[in-house]
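User: I'm putting together notes for a lab meeting next week and I want to include a structural view of one of the chains we've been expressing. I don't have a solved structure, so I'd like a prediction I can at least talk through. The sequence is below, exactly as it appears in our construct file.
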Amino acid sequence: MKKQKGFSLIELLIVVAIILIIAAIAIPNLLRSKMAANESSAVGSLRSINTAEVAYATAYPNVGYSATLGNLGGANPCTALAATSCLIDDTLAKSDVTAKSGYLATYLVGAVSGGIFPTYTIKNDPANRGTTGQRSFFSDQSGVIRYNVSNPAVVGDSPIQ
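Assistant: Thanks for the context. Below is the predicted structure for the 161-residue chain, given as structure tokens.
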């Protein structure tokens, strides 16, 4: 009897089946962890914007809160002015609707009162709910970050603990 070298077709099919079973178990966990990371990034962005808004309103009391997210950023090298205060990363400050880590941040400033912007709102919604993230987030000048699992978050939703 001659000794065979290599693997038989059955052995290779068994190995491929085992790899597919492991992948079927691992991929959903990977997607859930990616959504959790995207949600953490979205909350972190809101916290950065809230902190920058407080610093901006303190530095420019005759303006109040920034009129746009662009006022909070600035390209390097950055000179701190009311139009470019250098408080947040320029990637986050590029426009009032910013895409980052599977979330879309939308910034709205409140009505002018006495030449000052007294309020602002920022929403961070998943670009594709259920794929890039599950929860939507909301914050305003109060600094409280709120969330909603099924709809865009609003001021009456539950705060993050």
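A couple of points you could mention at the meeting. The CA atoms of residues 38 and 101 lie 5 Å apart. The chain has a mean pLDDT of 90.

User: Perfect, that's what I needed.
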